[in-house]
Amino acid sequence: xxxxxxxxxxxxxxxxxxxxxxxxxxxxxxxxxxxxxxxxxxxxxxxxxxxxxxxxxxxxxxxxxxxxxxxxxxxxxxxxxxxxxxxxxxxxxxxxxxxxxxxxxxxxxxxxxxxxxxxxxxxxxxxxxxxxxxxxxxxxxxxxxxxxxxxxxxxxxxxxxxxxxxxxxxxxxxxxxxxxxxxxxxxxxxxxxxxxxxxxxxxxxxxxxxxxxxxxxxxxxxxxxxxxxxxxxxxxxxxxxxxxxxxxxxxxxxxxxxxxxxxxxxxxxxxxxxxxxxxxxxxxxxxxxxxxxxxxxxxxxxxxxxxxxxxxxxxxxxxxxxxxxx
Length: 326
Description:
Radius of gyration: 22 Å
CATH class of the largest domain: Alpha Beta
CATH superfamily of the largest domain: START domain
Largest sheet: 8 strands, antiparallel
Structural class: alpha+beta
Strand content: 35-45%
Low-confidence stretches: none
Number of domains: 2
Oligomer: single chain
Strand order of the largest sheet: 1-2-8-7-6-5-4-3
Number of helices: 10
Helix content: 25-40%
CATH architecture of the largest domain: 2-Layer Sandwich
Mean pLDDT: 94
């Protein structure tokens, strides 16, 4: 993980993040000053950022919003106070309304981003200055410290490039906290096809099968927001097991980049999970990122112990073969 430290200082009214990266300063600077790259990591998992304005010059502004897994939206804005490429830039950071106007009732802060070379790459030091102890406490209570850490820990995949970051590594599962797990898999194929393979029943039934020996007997999908889906699997004759299925609802659909759904095991009173699927294409390959929210750590561990990662890898390997023939 690149983040080495996040500390708050109530006396100095600051929050300081330090992170180390195996990339030169110029590459790190580019990631923070190109809005298309910045929005790939600025929001924490489950809350991706979208920058609609980015005028990086003193007096210019950046306006962005974060979209949560249930469709919630949080707006923010930066006013650029100074820019000294590729060493540092400084912004006035504010919570904003839909038009990007800062909200007077919410805390405003000054952020300084500093980039410096190291023996192995580069270092980011991000210091946020608050106007009062109350403002610092309010932001900490909102979970900004942990959210910032999780957001910056996504930056490696941007700096390295998708093929270097995930190519040949298969399905990777990472526990983010007690209730969240992140699964990544690089698929050799364009994002439009990978999106279709997650939305169209004729394609889904060819790859979403888990280990060999099963078939998807039911695949009903309404991918629109508020629409429902239902999957059922049954074993082939030579495979032991019982029919089972999942059903759920689509909460967010942003083709071909993001879909958020609930997932419930059909016919049981087990609690539902929240599945946040994000797709990003680079150099002809698409990174699948699936963030799953469980009701508690116990449920998370029970599901992971079923061999979920291996089953997903079998499906994703099958998906690459399906895409090659589309």
